Amino acid sequence: MRFVTAACVAALATSGLVAAPALADEGMWTYDNFPSAKVREAYGVNVDQAWLDRVRGASVRLTTGCSSSVVSPQGLVLTNAHCVIECVQDLSSPQKDYVKDGFLTATREEERTCPGMQAEILTQITDVTDQVRAATAGKAGQDFVRARDAAMAQAEKAGCGDDKALRCQVVSLYRGGQFKLYKYRKYADVRLVFSPEYATAFFGGDPDNFNFPRFNLDMGFLRLYENGRPVATPQHLTWVSRAPKEGEVTFVSGNPGSTDRMLTVAQLETQRDLMIPVAQLQRSELRGRLLQFSSESPEHKRIATDPLTGLENSYKVFFGRQFALNDAAFMQAKRAGEAELRSKVAANPQLAAEIGDPWGEIAKAQAAAATHFVRYRQLEQAAGGGSLLFNYARDLVRAAQERAKPSAERLPSYADTRLPLLEKTLLDARPVDPALEQVYLEHWLLKTREYLTVDDPAVKMLLGRESPEGLAARVVKASTLGDPGERRRLWEGGMAAIQASDDPMIQLALRLDPPARAVRQSWDSEVAGPTDRAAERIARARFAVYGDQVYPDATFTLRLSYGKVAGWTYRGQTIPHFTTIGGLYERATGAEPFALAPRWAQAEAKLDKSVVYNFVTTNDIIGGNSGSPVVNARGEVLGAAFDGNIHSLGGAYGYDGTINRTVVVSTAAATEALAKVYGLNGLVRELNGGRRR
Amino acid sequence: MRFVTAACVAALATSGLVAAPALADEGMWTYDNFPSAKVREAYGVNVDQAWLDRVRGASVRLTTGCSSSVVSPQGLVLTNAHCVIECVQDLSSPQKDYVKDGFLTATREEERTCPGMQAEILTQITDVTDQVRAATAGKAGQDFVRARDAAMAQAEKAGCGDDKALRCQVVSLYRGGQFKLYKYRKYADVRLVFSPEYATAFFGGDPDNFNFPRFNLDMGFLRLYENGRPVATPQHLTWVSRAPKEGEVTFVSGNPGSTDRMLTVAQLETQRDLMIPVAQLQRSELRGRLLQFSSESPEHKRIATDPLTGLENSYKVFFGRQFALNDAAFMQAKRAGEAELRSKVAANPQLAAEIGDPWGEIAKAQAAAATHFVRYRQLEQAAGGGSLLFNYARDLVRAAQERAKPSAERLPSYADTRLPLLEKTLLDARPVDPALEQVYLEHWLLKTREYLTVDDPAVKMLLGRESPEGLAARVVKASTLGDPGERRRLWEGGMAAIQASDDPMIQLALRLDPPARAVRQSWDSEVAGPTDRAAERIARARFAVYGDQVYPDATFTLRLSYGKVAGWTYRGQTIPHFTTIGGLYERATGAEPFALAPRWAQAEAKLDKSVVYNFVTTNDIIGGNSGSPVVNARGEVLGAAFDGNIHSLGGAYGYDGTINRTVVVSTAAATEALAKVYGLNGLVRELNGGRRR
Questions:
Q1: Whole-number pLDDT of residue A23
Q2: Do A285 and B284 touch (CB under 8 A)?
Q3: Do A291 and B289 touch (CB under 8 A)?
Q4: Which residues of chain B does A287 touch, with a Cβ-Cβ cutoff of 8 Å?
Q5: Cβ pair A291:B295 closer than 8 A
């Protein structure tokens, strides 16, 4: 599944040379630098500005980490089931498990708001590189980071003012090579319309995740609301319920979350030797805890389903990344790419003088990264280990501290332009499961003690004379932050309310804050600052050498990729480009995760088994692209991208069009299922251009 | 803890150059090649043959993976608490938890036999290199492996005949450089005399494991029995209850389990990039399951204590190994060592011609290792995932198949000379915990499906239409292999009984056997065979270049290491060489694993807090050395080695005497505790040369 906790990775093979101009079908292109000429040449399709504007205007980013698209004039949004599963889980209860049973609405009145979810449509891109550059000129280390972040926040403020319907975000593209202001129309009331049963959306579960052939109705529908009414969306994609044709051109418009294709070899080695192994080992242990937790009772299984699905997906993604980097040939290709760029720079004395030795500077920062990483991770980056209550506490504490300062001097996540979404995320009501909270918090405290050691001052401050297990139990039991009213009180009360609070989770977050900020400062000064400053010059070198025929690393902002419907051949075996609904019934064993949902078992005779269920394309995507519309040359939607094949698991570092594939759930199958399995004819009518009812 | 599931590893720094002659204090020397001259020069101590014979004759190997020593004339054996914890757990029940409470005996009648444990004292070493070489001459691949294994089994048979009091074992030393026949006097009835409370033996738990300062009474006592009576052991070490002196010479006589110091760089890269990561990720997930399992109920906590302790120890060991290999400087030193040996070989044309290119051959075998490893691991090497019932089933199935063949044609573990210990292990009564069995078996099936994929023929054969969870539950519930009588029936009934059995665990083992044997054959032919054959020639090269001033990699056979009592200095911080009993009380917080056992809390006023509790020495040891006597120049026992410091975690690959340390529990503390905490004056009397009572 390609949501944003996921990146993508190739266990097996990737060419991995992004220093050089993009290969055929490669690239996650910004809308303001799409290689239309190349596409025309390769596919004979004319992607003009009108086409781009039309597709962009229907492309929707979900702040929860996914992509989606508007597919009706009444604000109906197509995405993946795995992009709404957190919402479905939040709307469920011990009495009603929509994750298991699916969430079906017969009328608009049954559509329900997804906590914490905001939808955003990109309306404008403006270059602000010069003003950010001016702010950072001559600065280094933490000063560099602060000046840059302040300039970005300032540009955001200037771009959107106080308009509550807009969101402005400055994006660093090409790792500091460009800074662009992205302006969005935002929708803070997003309601759930449809999600299939878990057994249907995730048929094959973790074993089949990132594999193909696949048989998943990984599709969900949302609707944009404003002032309690559906938003009118004249700009939407046309839904076509037909099978994709082999070789036909496809475009994916969505928000790839993060790639590391432009990292230097030194940075990749740090990922390989330190960052990924440490994170994966902890993830793996937590996975074991959640698996065992799930086996304890049906209710534990219910509440752990969504978290476990997400965790296993991330685990698989980083498994692929780790083994891509462990592949000597792959790293050799990366080394060759870097050497080529460096030699081209060296051959141009003026450029060489301007660029200096950013590769050396980044290599030097790796020693600092090795020194600080584990501490930075445990105390700051991954603090709380996924505990919702802890996250609330830390955001409340930090927001109270930061809001007392001028916006430009705050930690970037608390700048004025970031506060509306933070406030929504903090204050929206969501269920909190104490048993799960205990698992997360205990796991994090145990690992923090393990990695930093018992005698570390921060660990001593966190634990006092308590055990991780005991502290977690006490704090989870007594915290009242699960109550949105209490969170609002602390949010509005600022530092005075925080300091007066006897909530033990608030006190834990307060206790952690000084050492967390200290290591963050070391990280910014010695790692992030020098790295970002050097990376800007590598970006400049790349532009100078390769022109604009390169695309930036993914940044969870809107991109367009092109490709075609195509299977692939690997080690002599050819995988066809599609599966059918009939294949689902053949693969079902009756045992989870290969068991059919009851509705599907009952509907078997009614369904056209020849309908294309899932298909694959050569589009270059990554985590965050989940839910992206897959559109044809006319800009009509053929499906929603939901995964990559196993070969694409190295996609964080490179793309190989011969075997990397995007996996898509077809509109054809969706129409068939909505009508015949779910009996949602109103929804089908709306998709086909009518009104729901 | 340094028992044999553990190897040792250096997260931080090791010199790692074992191709060259050993550095000061480095080496796990065989008793027939001990560098007495070097020791005399360094420490002024004369280790003559009489000294060696005396210490050897009191050194005891425990087949469960530890070392120990005879310390009284009545067969009393000193080892570590962590070396007897499995026995203590086996003797416990839901009604009586000896792990938690300690196992104390007032009289000999209360001493109880440890299931599956055999004690062995080395009596003779004979060189059989020539006969093994003759058998393998001109052979390659699997033929080479088979011929060698058959020749080894034959030499064992010839060495011990049918004498049931003896065990003969041919050991490959220097990775095939020498083959030696080790003859042991064996004791199959080993009884538990004493083990402290878990809170005392493992104070500080996993967080303090491999750290120092330490405060562990990691000490246990066993007694050798024969014909229902204690064995007379005139040859034993003298117990001295005095503090070790800084700088005094120390010898450790024990059985280091396994080191990889002589591996080629290509082999180390395969460990680093494939074998260790895969195993650690699975271990980490299982750890999470067991941690969560332990939290479910006091009874789950009780039954999981021993397995979790062992698993966390292995995890930490391999964590250290992984990060030692991930250290570029460390690998560079390994590369330099290999290059030096190769250039010295190349400089001698006759030697070069004789040796050929074993490094190249081993590098080539790594491609085959990459192809087969995961399959080999899941189906053969780690099959069953730790399930005791599965292990019983597989041994019963394989033994029935193999015993039908002539000894020389069997899988090595089923040769005639190996059967007595196998039979004991299989037929001794041990408790089986179905809930734990479910965790192990389910985990293994899940990971096997994950790594080999759903569509793999072996996975399909294993699972059929069942889920891993469902299959594990069905099989664990219905198997009767927990009954030693049933195991005996199948052991004695041979293949006919196996094939007639409707035990589902037997059926699972039968189903797994063909694909498991197939991948084992691929492994032997393409990886083990070529590697072992090449390694023999590297050993020859090493002898030719460096003479006999090198020691072989550890093989869980008796070795002697020398060193001295000494703290160390790292990054400007100096760690003293000892801790005191008083330090225990200072470190205690009251929360696990830093809570005192009740007896210790009560005894505080009675104890002499200045008594040395744990101390460190420069001896070079590794997992398997746990329980080894640490003796002084006179051959008196000063303590039992039980751990290494954190810097020694790279010990599998090299030794750095400036910071690598052995951690020892002192006889002085043991005497103080036995008398004042446990009131075991009879045991103290026996240790001091009297009779117990």
A1: 77
A2: yes
A3: yes
A4: 285, 288
A5: no
Task: Give pLDDT, residue A689.
Answer: 87
Q: Residue A285 is nearest to which of B287, B450, B594, comparing CB atoms?
A: B287
Over the stretch B478-519, which tens digit does the pLDDT of each residue have? 999 999 999 999 999 999 999 999 999 999 999 999 999 999
- DSSP per position, B627-686: T-EEE-TTS-EEEEEEEE-GGGGGTTT---TTT--EEEEEHHHHHHHHHHTS--HHHHHH
A285 to B291: CB separation less than 8 angstroms, yes or no: yes
**Rounded-to-integer distance, Cα A527 and Cα A369, Å:** 6
Give chain B positions within 8 Å (CB) of A208. Answer: 454
Q: State the pLDDT confidence band at B163, using cuts at 50, 70 and 90.
A: very high
Alpha helix (H) ranges present in B547-637? 581-587, 598-603
Chain A and chain B share a number of CB contacts under 8 A equal to 116
Q: Which residues of A touch B277 (CB under 8 A)?
A: 277, 322-323, 326
Residue B549 pLDDT more than 90? no
Q: Which of B323, B467, B591 minimises the CB distance to A592?
A: B467
Nearest partner of A612 among A669, A568, A570, A673, judged by Cα = A669
Residue A652 neighbours by CB distance under 10 Å: 31
Mean pLDDT of chain A: 95
Instruction: Give me the sign of the Cα torsion angle B606, B609, B610, B611.
Output: positive
Beta-strand pair B220-226/B178-187: unpaired
- Asked if A620 and A26 count as a contact pair (C-beta separation under 8 A), the reply is yes
- Chain A residues closer than 8 Å to B319 by CB: 281
The pTM assigned to this predicted structure is 0.96
| pLDDT tens digits for range A331-383 | 999 999 999 999 999 999 999 999 999 999 999 999 999 999 999 999 999 99
Closest Cα in chain B to A445: B207
Chain B interface mutation, best of A301, A439, A442, A454, highest count of B Cβ atoms under 10 Å = A454
Which segments of chain A have a pLDDT < 70?
3-21, 691-693
CA dist., res. B392 & res. B498, Å (int): 12
d(CA A8, CA A277): 16
Measured distance CA(A199)–CA(A209) in Å, rounded:
13
Closest CB to B287: pick one of A206, A288, A293. Answer: A288
Chain centre distance of CA B488: 27
Nearest to B326 among A204, A273, A293 (CB): A273
Of B289, B453, B467, the CB nearest to A292: B289
Strands B229-230 and B220-226, how do they pair?
A: antiparallel
Is B284 in contact with A289 (Cβ distance < 8 A)? no
- Nearest C-alpha of chain B: how many angstroms from A591? 6
- Say which of B207, B323, B465 has its CB closest to residue A450: B207
pLDDT, position B11:
33
3-state secondary structure of A166: strand
Mean per-residue pLDDT over chain B, rounded: 95
What pLDDT was estimated at residue B690? 77
Q: CB neighbours of B41 closer than 8 A, spacing ≥ 6? A: none
Q: Is A42 helix (H, G, I), strand (E, B) or coil?
A: helix
| ipTM of the complex as predicted | 0.95
Please report the DSSP string for B5-57 in residue order. Answer: T-----SS------SSPP-TT---EEGGG--HHHHHHHH-----HHHHHHHHH
What lies within 8 Å, CB to CB, of B510 at 6+ separation is: B397, B498
Per-residue pLDDT, A142: 87
| Contact between chains at A470 and B591 (C-beta distance less than 8 A) | yes
In sequence order, what are the residues at sequence separation of 6 or more whose Cβ sits closer than 8 angstroms to the Cβ of residue A406? none
Residue B408's pLDDT is what?
Answer: 86
> Where is B578: in which H helix or E strand?
strand B578-580
Interchain CB distance below 8 Å, A467 and B592: yes
> What pLDDT is stored for residue B20 in this prediction?
61
